[in-house]
Amino acid sequence: MAWLVRIELGAEDIRRLRINDSYLWHQKLWTCYPSSQDQKRDFLSRIDILDGGIRVWMLAHREPIRPDWCPMNAFQIRNISESFLSHKYYAFDLVANPVESVVQVEIDGTHKLTADGKRMRSRRRPLIKDKELREWIYRKGNMNGFSIVDLKPLEISPMIESHFSKKGNHGYHGSVRFRGLLEVMDSEKFAEAYHNGIGSAKAFGFGLMLLFPIS
Description:
2 domains, globular
C-alpha cells in the first residue's frame, strides 16, 4: 500500500518557509511523520517549479499527515491501490539524477589509493549529453522491468543543477526530466522500482516516477 501526496504552494508560502534547497525540503517532508523522524526514509519526493510557486510530490509507504506549515487547501492525498500497477502501458514523468561511476586511476592506469592503502571510491559523473541520457533511461528500464515505447518521442530536458547544503557541505545534483511512454515487461520489478525510485540521490528529491495508465 502506498500514498501519493501533492502539495501546491504559492510565492508567499515559499517566502514564509524560507526553503530553497533540495535537502531542506526532504527534511521538511519528514514533518509529515511527527512521531517517527528518526526512522529510515521510506518515501520519495519531488519538487516541480511552477510560475509563482512550487508543486511538491511525495510517494510514501506510510500514510502522511498534513503538517502545520502546509495550508489545508494545498494538501491533497490519495491511496495508490495495487491494481494501479496492473496496467501494461503508462505515460511516465520522471525527474532523476543520471550519473555514471568513474573509477579513479593514476596516470599509469592503476587504481588511486587512500593514505591507508585502500582503493579510492569511484566518483559519480553527471550525465549531460542526449545520447548518454537516452542510454541511461533505456538501461534503467531494462533493470527495472519496463521498456521505452517509441510511439511517442521520448522527451529529455536539459540537465539543470540542483544545489544543496548538508552538514556544512555544499554540492549539486544534475536534474533531468524524462517524459514518454513505457511498456511493463516484468510487473514485480516494475512495482518495486515505482515504490523505491529510480536512480540515485533519492533523499534529495529524485527518482519519483509519476505514472498515467494508457489503454
